[in-house]
Amino acid sequence: DVQLQASGGRLVEAGGSLRLSCAASGFALDYYAIAWFRQAPGKEREGVSCISITDGTTEYADSVRGRFTISSDNAKNTIYLQMNNLKPEDTAVYYCAAGGMTAPNRSLQLLRLWQPVYDYWGQGTQVTVSS
Question: Which of 46, 79, 74 is nearest to 60 (CA)?
């Protein structure tokens, strides 16, 4: 079974840091893009960041660029999202997702955080940033 297990969310004060983890099992990450999405109360789910495990390419939403860093530990089949200088507007349920980079067009869509091309989704982890 393919599984993605997100963890690390908690309550933190504005300006603080958190590291989220996404542990993947049931498949090898080599030809996948792994992304983080988030959904705040009353809002649509949005893309935060993604990484191509194949070549290490990363992408970030404008709202988090410079504050968040995505990385992978392929030996552990785990992807991390380091979040620094957190703001109350970062409060959301954070989800990790995986999509196979099976074709050039699909790879572009994955890196643009287009949700329909992500095949596997984990359960969310709650991040709450207090002001």
Answer: 46
- In whole angstroms, what is the distance from residue 108 CA to residue 57 CA? 11
In sequence order, what are the residues at sequence separation of 6 or more whose Cβ sits closer than 8 angstroms to the Cβ of residue 82? Answer: 17, 18, 19, 68, 69, 70, 71
50: left (phi over 0), alpha (psi -120 to 50) or beta: beta
pLDDT one-digit tens code per residue, 69-82 = 999 998 999 999 99
Burial of 130 (C-beta count, 10 Å sphere; 0-12/13-18/19+): exposed
Decide if 72 contacts 58 (C-beta within 8 A).
Answer: no
Is residue 102's pLDDT more than 90?
A: no
Label each residue of 86-119 as H, E or C.
CCHHHCEEEEEEEEECCCHHHHHHHHCCCHHHCC
